[in-house]
Sequence to fold (221 residues):
Amino acid sequence: MSYLKWMILPLAAMLLASAPLMARASVPHQRTPTVSAEELARQMDARDPVTISAPGTMSQLAALGSTEIPALPSVALPQLPDPSIETPLHRLFCVEYARARSGLAVFGDAKLWWSRAKNLYARMTRPMENTVMVFSGSKRLRKGHVAVVTDIVSKREIRVDQANWQNHGEIDHSTPVLDVSARNDWSKVRVWDMRSNGFGAHVYAISGFIAKELVKQAAND
Fold:
């Protein structure tokens, strides 16, 4: 019995001393799991999504400093009246109406006003308020047409007052006229059509614009 005890005690001591080493050896080495680039991108998108904005959006303007944000126009355009029709007491022609409104002493058919105003009044290729716009003669306007410019809306649009445009002797107020020339030189225009409530399909040739006040100013200088 003493012999067995002598053999068991050293063996037990050896087992107790080697137990921590065996426990450590039994635990596998923990390696960092491998993640593909696609999976990593998916995880990042799910955790912190990124919003991509198109150029010129409000998100980009918000990132700018207060001195870098472009200023908006502070002056509003005047409210223009809607186009309207007036029926006078007697039938009016475009030349007599334009002559009374502008004070230009030009006579004859409307298509002749441009040539007859030479050396009498200032002739311009671009519109100004209170000038007379002269329509050239054509198959549709055999005698031409004249209208008084009342407002400059933009580089391509003006408003005019005119008579007998619809061949009823009427007065058309605040009629929109649109420049459709390729060079924005007001050589070709389209006129607002009251019946369809839009610009007419016909394109009219323009000789130019006649001004009376510029001649008076030049004479006083």
